[in-house]
Amino acid sequence: MKPKDVFIELQKSTSLSNFACAEYLGISEASVQDRRNGRYTPKKSELIALAVYGSVAGDNALNFLRKLTGK
Question: In a structure prediction context, what are the per-residue pLDDT tens digits for the chain, which is 71 residues long?
């Protein structure tokens, strides 16, 4: 399976629109499209972020980052 296919499947599993996915990953909506159509290979960190989206691990990571940044 190619990285773009993994990206597409992970995005589908999260039920995030391209806009919401872009917002979550901190990239532009056009960048999401670039990853989906294979013009740009998704970063491992983006794949991991999508893989943990909505999970306990994702929530724990977010809480940890909030503590570190004070937000």
Answer: 999 999 999 999 999 999 999 999 999 999 999 999 999 999 999 999 999 998 998 888 889 989 998 86
Which two tokens mark 2?
């190619």
How is 19-66 classified by DSSP, letter by letter? Answer: HHHHHHHTS-HHHHHHHHTTSSPPPHHHHHHHHHTTSHHHHHHHHHHH
Other CB atoms within a 10 A radius of the CB of residue 62 amount to 11
Q: What span, in angstroms and rounded, lies between the C-alpha atoms of 32 and 34?
A: 5
Residues 49 and 70: their CA atoms lie apart, in Å, by: 21
Contact criterion met (CB below 8 Å) for 57 and 28? no
